[in-house]
Structure formats: C-alpha cells, structure tokens
Write a structure and sequence with these properties.
The protein has 461 residues and is of the alpha+beta class. It has one domain: Outer membrane efflux proteins (OEP). 69% of the residues lie in helices and 11% in strands. The protein is built from 13 helices and six strands. The strands form two sheets. A four-stranded antiparallel beta sheet has the order 2-3-5-6. It has a two-stranded parallel ribbon with strand order 1-4. Helix 6 runs antiparallel to helix 10. The longest helix has 67 residues. It is elongated and about 140 Å long.
Length: 461
C-alpha cells in the first residue's frame, strides 16, 4: 500500500509538471494563425474587407429587387372583414340587399339604421400595364448585372491594393534589415578603431566621424521600423481587421512563385484584353442598357392599363352567415391616361439625357483604361531597367566597400572614404530592394489594369 501511494503521488506530480510546462510553452498554433502569407492576406481581404462585403450586400439587394418586380406578374389575394353601422339610406339599401334582408315595405327616404358584418376575399391581377412591368423587371435584372460587375471591380482593385501593400511591407522590412546591417557594420568598425585609437594609431577625428555615421545609421533604422509598422497598420485595414490586431509577415516569402501573373507582351494586346475583361466596361454597358430601358419605361406612360379583379363576400347583421346568400363581383378595368400635364414627356426627356450621359461615361472609361494599361506597362519597363541597374550597383558597392575597408584598415584610405563606401553600399542595397518590389508591384498593376486579377485569384481558389 505504501508503494502504491507513492506511485500515485508521483503520477500527480508528473501531471502537475506537464500542465505547468505546457502553460509556459509558446502557443504554436496561435503563432501560426498570426503568420500572414500573401495567400492568406488575399483570402482574408476577400472575406473581411468592408468594401468587398458592401458590394456583395448590394448584389443581394439587387437580387431581392428582381424578385420584387416579378411579384406584379402574380395575382394578389386579400382576405378582409368589415363592421359597419349607420342610417345612410344608400348604405342601408346596399348592405341590407347584400344580406338578402331588404323589407318589402321599406321607405327609401328613411329606411332606418343598420348594422353589417362583412367577410370575404378579393383577388386581382394586372393583365397589361403598357409594358411597364416587363421593363421594370428588365431594369432590375440589368441593375443586378451592374452590381455584379461592381463587385468584380472592387475585388480587382482591392486584391491589387492588398498585394501592393504586402510588397510595400516586405520592402519596408527589407529596409529595416539593410539599416540594421549598416548599424552592425559601423559598430564593428567603431569597436576596431576604438582599440586602435587607444593604441595611438588612429586619430580622434576618425572615431568622431564613425560615431556620427553610426548615429545616422541608427536614425535610418528607427525610421525604417516606423515605416514598417505603419505599413502593417495600413495592410491590416485593407484586410478588414479590427484596430489593434497584430500579425507577422511570412519570414521567407517568394514573390516570384506566390504571386505570378501572366500578361500580353504588347500594349495593344493588353488593351484588347482589357476591353473584354475590365469590370468597369461591363458596368458601363449595363448602365447604357439601363438608360435605354428607362427611356422605354418612361414611354409606357402613354399606353393603357388593364386589370382583372374579383371579389367574393358575405354580409350579416348578427354573424349568421349563410353560404346560399354569398355575393361575388368580377370586373375587367381599363384605364388610359389621356393627359398628364406633360409629365410622361418630361420623364422621357430625362431618361434620354441619362442615356447620353451613360454613353459619354463609357467613352471616358475606355480612355481611362487605355491610360491605365499603358502607364502600367511603362512602369513595369522602368522597374525592370532599375532592377538591372540596382543589381549591378549592389555588386559594385559590395566590392568597393571590401577594397576600401582593407585599405582603410591598412591606413591607405581616410575614414571619410570608408564611410562613403559604406553609405554607397547601403544606398545600393536599398535601391535594389525598392526596384525588386516595384517590379512586382508593376506586374500586379498590369493585371489590375487588364482586369484579370480577381478572375485569376478566383481560379486559384
């Protein structure tokens, strides 16, 4: 029994230690949840971005509007009940006759008072409304197509913004790494020169120059960190995160493989593709069709309206309804507005002016899209040239710093020359990082200008 109790105590102690240890270990799953890759950034934006969510809500609203316009093609059925009392001769006669209780010796001028309780069902359907119902349904359907194109346009723009902001954040993080490397390089050189200064082989002015350069490098590092933090905040806003949400970027992203886009070689081919794919042009077409439909809808005011209505009911003065005394009426009503004070003519003129505006808007959109495509290609070409120059510049700056550092350590170069070489290396590294991510951003801008970005991402999903 003693050994059994001891074994049980050991088990309890072991369980306690395991629980205590697990409580202080890092939450790996939570850390992975906060790790943001480009794929998760885009999928999060598609799900949480307020602009995208609002456009999807507009689609649902337009779908409901289409269903509402379809309701006029179906009959309307209403159950009703009425309790009335009075001594008006006309009401007395009609209600009493409907009750089948009109006295044979009634004085029509003074029939007396009455009470009536009526229950029944009314039904009606519009047979013709000058084509207005059909046109209103078409207008709602075109508005639904417009809202769908708006959603694609918003997704195309927001995906481009997320990718570009993600690259901007990576670029800011690269700047921070370059600044930190610069600080470490100057600190190492300062430590070495401080030792030599104590030995009397280095001037104090060299030490002061290195300290000044170190202060500048630390200032650049602080600025880079602040830029990186502000970029992450902007990225979180695009993703639809609440204020205060924190995450970390993918430590080893590969923009070449994670966000590869294809696009035509020439601007003319891209322009032709943009005319087919850009959601803005689809919206412009829908708005022109909506305006033309609105003209026809306004002209429907010149045509008649035909309604079929039926009514079945029973009347009683004491709730003793009798099916043999029920009543019904049915009628076909035709109404034609012969003069409405020129209101219909004014509505037609208003709709035609809106059609003219929609046609001009499409011309403007076409010109804007061509400008977007051309500017995107020019930016891409410029970024590629800058990247080639920046890569060779980094190689030359690294080699120059290596040579100058050796000569400076040997006393053949002044400290100012070493500082210039170190600064040139830092600038070249920054230019290379900027050119690399600007090139990727330019590729994304081409896909956005053509209008294929949201479609490509949907296919990948």
């Amino acid at each position: 029994m003693k050994y059994a109790n001891l074994s049980f105590k050991n088990i309890l102690i072991l369980v306690f230690l395991i629980a205590a240890t697990s409580s202080v270990l890092p939450d790996v799953s939570r850390a992975e949840d906060h790790l943001l890759t480009l794929e998760t950034a885009i999928s999060t934006a598609l799900e949480n971005n307020p602009d995208i969510r609002m456009t999807r809500t507009l689609i649902k609203k337009a779908e409901a509007s289409v269903k509402k316009t379809e309701a006029v093609f179906r009959p309307r059925v209403t159950a009703f009940s009425e309790l009335s009392a009075g001594d008006a001769p006309s009401a007395f006669l009609f209600k009493t006759i409907d009750q089948r209780k009109l006295p044979p010796d009634i004085d029509f001028n003074d029939p007396g008072s009455f009470t009536n309780m009526e229950v029944g069902i009314m039904a009606g359907i519009n047979l013709y409304n000058g084509g207005k119902n059909r046109l209103e349904k078409q207008l709602a359907q075109k508005k639904l197509a417009d809202r769908t194109a708006l959603a694609l346009q918003t997704e195309n723009d927001r995906i481009a913004a997320v990718i570009q902001m993600f690259f901007t954040a990576l670029k800011a993080r690269e700047y921070t790494f370059i600044a930190r490397t610069s600080v470490q390089t100057v600190e190492e050189q300062l430590d070495m020169m401080t030792v030599r200064f104590r030995g009397g082989s280095v001037l104090k002015s060299d030490i002061l120059s290195l300290k000044v350069r170190l202060a500048e490098a630390k200032k650049k590092m602080v600025e880079s960190k602040n830029t990186f933090a502000s970029t992450l905040t902007a990225l979180a806003t695009l993703l639809g995160h609440t204020p205060g949400h924190s995450f970390s970027l993918d430590p080893d992203p590969d923009p070449d493989s994670t966000c590869a886009v294809t696009f035509p070689v020439s601007i003319d081919q891209a322009w032709a593709l943009a005319l087919e794919k850009r959601p803005e042009l689809h919206r412009a077409k829908q708005q022109i069709d909506m305006a033309r439909t609105a003209v026809s809808l306004a002209a429907s005011g010149y045509r008649p309206r035909v309604d079929l209505q039926a009514r079945w009911y029973m009347d009683s003065d004491d709730l003793s309804y009798n099916r043999s005394n029920d009543n019904y009426t049915a009628g076909l009503n035709v109404a034609w507005n012969l003069f409405d004070g020129f209101a219909t003519r004014a509505q037609i003129a208003e709709a035609r002016h809106e059609l003219e505006r929609a046609l001009e808007a499409r011309k403007k959109i076409r010109m804007q899209i061509y400008q977007d495509v051309k500017q995107a290609y020019l930016q891409h070409e410029n970024a590629q040239q800058r990247l080639l120059v920046a890569r060779s510049g980094v190689e030359m700056a690294e080699a120059s710093l290596h040579i100058v550092k050796k000569r400076y350590n040997g006393g053949a170069e002044p400290v100012t020359r070493y500082l210039e070489a170190e600064l040139d290396r830092t600038r070249a590294s920054i230019n290379k990082a900027a050119a690399f991510y600007d090139d990727k951003t330019a590729e994304i801008e081409i896909a956005r200008a053509i209008g294929t970005l949201s479609v490509l991402w949907s296919q990948e999903k």
